Task: inverse folding
């Protein structure tokens, strides 16, 4: 399941309607051509949106999805210690959670198997957004 996050990772409220359309549809078309997959979810870069951008993205066929948990993990040169990160992440598990973890985080990469293990041990399951909507 792929979700659109735009081409250039710019704040959507700072862009014109045409720029938003280009940001989303350029990536949409690339994913469609390379993987034959039609994206329908999008997460606004930096979580920045406005009523106008929500309308724009909905008009392009997207459902905007936000996260319910995030922590400062995106700075590659300022990664949290693994023991601190695992504590922050696991102490914030909650039902219906949409966890935002950045793929460029070496800490997250190293911890992901343990995060999944601990979540399952606590009775949590994982599902796609499509399953969650049902």
Result:
């Amino acid at each position: 399941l792929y979700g659109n996050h735009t081409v250039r990772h710019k704040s959507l409220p700072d862009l014109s309607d045409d720029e938003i359309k280009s940001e989303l549809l350029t990536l949409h078309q690339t994913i469609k051509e390379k993987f034959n997959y039609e994206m329908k979810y999008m997460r606004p870069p930096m979580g920045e949106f406005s009523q106008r951008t929500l309308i724009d993205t909905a008009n392009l066929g997207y459902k905007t999805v936000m996260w319910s948990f995030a922590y400062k993990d995106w700075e590659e040169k300022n990664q949290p210690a693994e023991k601190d990160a695992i504590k922050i992440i696991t102490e914030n598990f909650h039902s219906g959670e949409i966890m935002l973890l950045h793929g460029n985080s070496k800490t997250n990469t190293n911890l992901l198997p343990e995060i999944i293990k601990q979540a399952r041990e606590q009775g949590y399951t994982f599902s796609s957004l499509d399953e969650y909507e049902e």
The CA atoms of residues 19 and 69 lie 29 Å apart. The first helix runs from residue 17 to 35. Helices lie at 17-35, 51-59, 82-90, 106-121, 129-133. The chain is about 45% helix and 5% strand.
